Amino acid sequence: MAPKGKKHCVRTLPPDVLNNLPENVVDEILIRLPLRDAVRTSILSKKWRYNWCRLPQLTLDQALWKTKKDLTYITSNFTKIIYHIMTLHVGPITKFTLCIPNLEGCPNLDNLMYFLSRNVIKHLVLRLPRGNPYKLPSSFFVCLQLRHLTLKNCLILPPPTFKGFDRLTSLKLYNVSISSKLLESFISYSPLLEQLVLQISGLSDIIEINAPMLRSFDFTGNIRCICFKSIPLLAKLLLTQENYVEEKCNIAKFFEPLIALEHLHLNDTFFFAGAGEVPTRLPFNLNFVKHLCISSICLFVLEEVSCALCLLRSFPCLQYVEIKVEAGDGNDIPALECLEVEQFSDVSFNHLREVKLIRTNGTIREMQLMKLLLAKSPVLVRMLIQPCLVEDSAILAELTNFQRASPKAQVVYKHQ
Prior knowledge:
With 416 residues, the protein is an alpha/beta fold.
């Protein structure tokens, strides 16, 4: 409360505080604002009118022009915004993000790409509408300062003189149109590449990955096989095969170059099943693998079970296993025999601490897998079972009776 006889004083900012802020402080403020709000700061004062025009990082999405009052002329508004940026912006643009996946068609971006190619662009994200892919113009392939590149719904057809982005460290391609040979060249011409994400359905041939600095690879699509040539640092691999393919990768040849692998996520083991006889274990151990996730496996299919068990035997330092079981039926006795504890007399999962089994139904094969992991994991701390159906007291009772190599092993049966 204000003292009696005195008016309450309200503190106000001196009128020139905003105008006297150092440029680097103003830039830090504007970078943290959405572009629409950054442009609106022009009304603060004459000195702020064009501050946004020197922003080195720009993000354009439909929030810039799509309002409740105006849901039409989207492409026209977008074109105007691009024109103002190219006309008013000064200085380099090191990071540019364009996210317009919901437009009915892709506007002409050639002038924008030419503009960016002359502005020292280092980080480029283009998420474009579905339909006919946008063919990247020749100006795109002279952006030789690129470090990070994300493309969605684009056609990549470089000129014959293109020798790659030799400074690129991150490459993410979603639903792009590119041939297998061009993709191989694109990757091999990027010797500093550390992160690679490919979500491409159109590939059908074998592709070779030659990336000596690659540490993370995430692939989703349809492909006959992936051949790793030089990837000595690859630590994280996520492999999702969308549809069934007749030709499979040889499991031993596939994993042989992965000497630094730590984290493996497979959506299914049929990527390897059927490529000759699946060995009991790989001819070598991968001693750095700590995390194995198989997000789809049918325990009624011998080839899939054999592949999964082959990997378990070949990862002696494994600490975490997650397996999602697919529903199925059949009477494949060899698949059941593979899961017997007696088949693992010479194997022990000495570092396995946590197991997660998802969508189980309490089948004989699932119970046999649980029994195997409990019996051969002396340091196991937790086995989490998320059943597909409601909790079954009979399954719980049977789990309680299974022998456990670890006195600390806790079995948690929890409906998701």
